[in-house]
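Same chain as my last thread, 184 residues:
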Amino acid sequence: MLPDLATVPVFYHGYINKIKQQDLVLALNENSKELFAYLEAIPQEKITYSYAPGKWTVKQVVQHLMDAERVFVYRALRFSRADQIPLPGFDENAFADHADAAHISWENLLEEFKLLRRSTELFFAGLTDEQLQRVGIASEQSCSALAFGFITAGHAAHHLDVFRERYFPEIGLASFRTNFRYLS
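reply #2:
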């Protein structure tokens, strides 16, 4: 079931609205297949490309996706365990400035992301409905564990749209490798 947007900070509504599936684990799995198929289709010589001065490179975006996913899932973990200690926000730009994704090989970056996402899927699959509905405070706003699951998928879908629209509009579905297989 999708989270009730009335209980989710407005900032995250756009991410959640990108997800069409009602089932969180299915949404994450479908998002993973689409995202990794697209990332695998990016030519090796383009991974350091950014579409404009001052914008993140492809590798920096992927590192950002992993950093944000870790933060979102950590929030969901804390909330699902009924932890009522408010969590701070995080500065995505500071994370990106200090991640130094340039030194990580593209292959290792993608492999790490695939493993992280598989862990995310298994984590959410293991939560009960009661745990998913538990609410906590992050960035001074309340939100549920369930919402952070959909935010995780929606955030990745948002950046996939940015890749399609601003980085590589020429990479269409026909360019995806037909032999791509996501971890299962």
